[in-house]
Amino acid sequence: MVARIRKAVFPVAGLGTRFLPATKAMPKEMLTVVDKPLIQYAVEEAVAAGIEEFIFVTGRGKQAMEDHFDLSYELNETLDRRGKTAELEQVNEFLPPPGAIKYVRQREALGLGHAIWCARDMIGDEPFAILSPDDLVLGEPPCLAQLVQAYSETGGNVVAVMDVPRDQTDRYGILDTPNPQDRLAEITGLVEKPKPADAPSTLSIIGRYILHGSVFSHLDRHEKGAGGEIQLTDAMARMIGTQPFHGLRFQGERFDCGTKEGWLAANIAFSLARDDRRDQTEQILARYR
Ligand code: UTP
Fold it and tell me: I need a surface site. Which of 47, 80, 100, 209 has the fewest CB within 10 A?
């Protein structure tokens, strides 16, 4: 029996420089796809996977996220007075129970590994999930639920993976694996942002992970890696061989909403996937073709 995954970390302290100027005063994670901010999709995905504790690693200028997951008395009162029952439900139905969301600040954006390390005391020694809200996945079952299922089969560590074009390996964490075509690829090595010629495969990690708490002992070293940042991939690489470690080829499509093109594609794909938006979206697309 593997331990249940109860906690998830949401690293949301990044600067979002690839989406400036939109992210100058607004958190990247509050960018909307159709009608919901990215962070809400991530929390809903975590809820669907059975997560009970939600740990946000935030930074300066990220207040809007805390407000989004709080009660808005004025708005509630106004919607109630106007009889807008459906809207009232829309702004409250996604709120986890009081006390379920916790916040910790990463004082400096020193890298994803450092952001996760900031949550160490809230996780302790148990396996936990990580969701990067800017990686949005359209698919059923939701990506983290697929990962939890894979974890129940393998134990150890599991990360969501997908094929990327070889000329883009220097943007991702890449797997070394003897069975890259399988649903569950055994991970024998990990390298962050390798040059295409040096990449051991074209299988890339996306922003969904289930890791054992022992990752914190490796993150404790604060070693800088690719781009001068403290990389989660480097800490994960040190866990290989100590526990099972697999990459899951998840079912669904991933959108990098930290980029303008990924965000635009996500808006189109998510709109087309929704019964209440599909016809209108097709009409708009036809108009601009
Ligand atoms: P990104 O690699 O997209 O970095 O982070 P970024 O700073 O947000 O964006 P760019 O590259 O400047 O455009 C992936 C995830 O990790 C978080 C981000 O908030 C995002 O969810 N992150 C990254 C942190 O929380 N802290 C960091 O130091 C770096």
Answer: 80
Q: Tell me the Cα Rg of the chain.
A: 19
Q: Are 208 and 9 in contact (CB under 8 A)?
A: no
> For residues 195 and 170, is the Cβ–Cβ distance under 8 A?
yes
Atom of ligand 1 nearest to the CA of 111: 28
Nearest CA to ligand 1 atom 15: 132
CB 160 within 8 A of CB 209: yes
> One-letter amino acid identity for 205?
I
Residue type at position 143: C
Entry pTM: 0.96
The CATH class given to the 7-287 domain equals alpha beta
pLDDT tens by residue, 114-171:
999 999 999 999 999 999 999 999 999 999 999 999 999 999 999 999 999 999 999 9
* Cα angle 267, 271, 277; round to 5: 145
Find the 76 Cα to ligand 1 centroid distance in Å: 33
Token pair for residue 50?
């059975």
Q: Is 228 exposed, middle or buried (0-12, 13-18, 19+ CB in 10 A)?
A: exposed
CA gap 20, 28 in Å, rounded: 9
Domain range list for the chain: 7-287
Kindly provide the residue ranges of all beta strands, DSSP E only, lying in 40-141, ordered along the sequence: 53-58, 101-105, 128-131, 135-138
- Where does ligand 1 bind, in terms of residues with CB under 6 Å? 11-18, 28, 57, 106, 109-112, 114-115, 132-134, 258
| Under 8 Å between Cβ of 175 and 205 | yes
CA–CA gap between residue 186 and residue 158 (Å, rounded):
9
**Euclidean distance between CA atoms 242 and 213, whole angstroms:** 13
